[in-house]
């Protein structure tokens, strides 16, 4: 008889499983493994009784086709489900339970199900990927992140952009004998976009210091990038560094004079800067009048 094991635990969450039928211990899913699974006997409840599973979950949706790529989930429930799969062996069947509690300790959601890991298709380790595959993966995660931003799922988008950036960095140092100059330029452009997108995500949570550093990295590649200048302006404004913000927004407008968002920020920032200049002028007059 197999005992229930705790896969992950913290005050607001606990993930457990109990083996029904063991599998092949030599074949276990890891990052980027492709798994074929069957889920059955699904139950979900909270303090009030039966409830719906997270709407953003793909694994527990009616359209799920039984295929899971480890590391490719965005919903927090699907990511927790992946943790269970990574503790299973190919051919194994288990009962799984995911418990979530709110800040007061009340049951927010409890999901129970039976999982059969029917097949595990091992992929090449990321450390062994060639630059072409790393670049394609970076583009893939960047596009996924853009879609998540459109859905206002900023935390998930940040994770995708960060993963895309890691894929690009893994290509470095770039060998000019292997990668042509035009492709190197594309990679640099993509890196700038990723730094900009990460900065956008940080600004949504008023993390202005982090956004400022990301914009600086983008501008270290393209000093005239209007989007990076605009977002650094937002970061400076959030840090009450209005003179620096004014310089950036003027430069952004110079490089993209038809951008209405930039024009709007100029109009918002102008009276603030003029007021601060006037206040400074008044102080100087009092000191040396």
Question: What number is the mean pLDDT?
Answer: 93
Distance N to C terminus? 91 Å
Range of helix content: 40-55%
- How many DSSP H or I helices? 8
SSE-based structural type: alpha+beta
What would you report as the Rg, rounded to the nearest angstrom?
25 Å
Largest sheet: 7 strands, antiparallel
The geometry reads as globular
Q: Uncertain spans, ≥5 residues at pLDDT below 50?
A: none
Number of beta-strand segments: 7
Strand content: 15-25%
Overview in brief:
The chain has 289 residues and is an alpha+beta fold. It has eight helices and seven strands, in the order βββββαββααααααα.
Topology:
Elements: E1 5-10, E2 13-21, E3 34-46, E4 49-50, E5 67-69, H1 76-85, E6 93-101, E7 107-121, H2 131-150, H3 154-169, H4 181-204, H5 208-221, H6 226-238, H7 242-255, H8 260-288
Antiparallel strand pairs: 1-2, 2-6, 3-4, 3-5, 3-7, 6-7
Helix pairs in contact: 2-3, 2-4, 3-4, 4-5, 4-6, 5-6, 6-7, 7-8
Report on this model:
- This protein has 289 residues and is of the alpha+beta class.
- Helices cover 48% and strands 20% of the residues.
- Helix 2 (131-150) runs parallel beside helix 4 (181-204).
- The chain is globular and about 90 Å long.
- The mean pLDDT is 93.
């Amino acid at each position: 008889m197999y005992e229930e094991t705790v896969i992950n635990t913290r005050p607001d969450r606990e993930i457990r499983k109990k083996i029904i039928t063991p599998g092949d211990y030599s074949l276990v899913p890891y990052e980027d493994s492709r798994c074929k699974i069957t889920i059955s006997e699904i139950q979900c409840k909270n303090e009030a009784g039966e409830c719906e599973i997270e709407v953003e979950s793909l694994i527990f949706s009616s359209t799920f086709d039984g295929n899971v790529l480890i590391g490719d989930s965005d919903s927090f429930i699907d990511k927790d489900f992946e943790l269970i799969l990574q503790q299973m062996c190919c051919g194994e069947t288990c009962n799984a339970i995911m418990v979530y509690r709110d800040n007061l300790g009340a049951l927010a959601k409890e999901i129970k199900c039976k999982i059969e890991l029917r097949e595990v298709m091992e992929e090449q380790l990321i450390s062994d990927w060639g630059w072409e595959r790393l670049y394609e993966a970076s583009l893939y995660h960047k596009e996924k992140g853009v879609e998540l931003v459109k859905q206002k799922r900023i935390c998930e988008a940040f994770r995708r952009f960060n993963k895309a950036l890691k894929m690009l960095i893994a290509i470095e140092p770039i060998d000019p004998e292997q990668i042509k100059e035009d492709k190197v330029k594309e990679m640099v452009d993509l890196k700038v976009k990723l730094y900009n997108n990460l900065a956008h995500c940080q600004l949504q949570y008023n993390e202005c210091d982090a956004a400022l550093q990301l914009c600086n990295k983008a501008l270290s590649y393209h000093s005239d990038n209007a989007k990076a200048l605009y977002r650094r302006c937002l970061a400076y404004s959030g840090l009450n560094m209005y003179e620096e913000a004014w310089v950036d927004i003027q430069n952004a407008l110079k490089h993209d004079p038809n951008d209405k968002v930039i024009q709007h920020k100029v109009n918002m920032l102008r009276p603030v800067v003029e007021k601060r200049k006037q206040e400074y002028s008044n102080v100087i007059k009092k000191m040396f009048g």
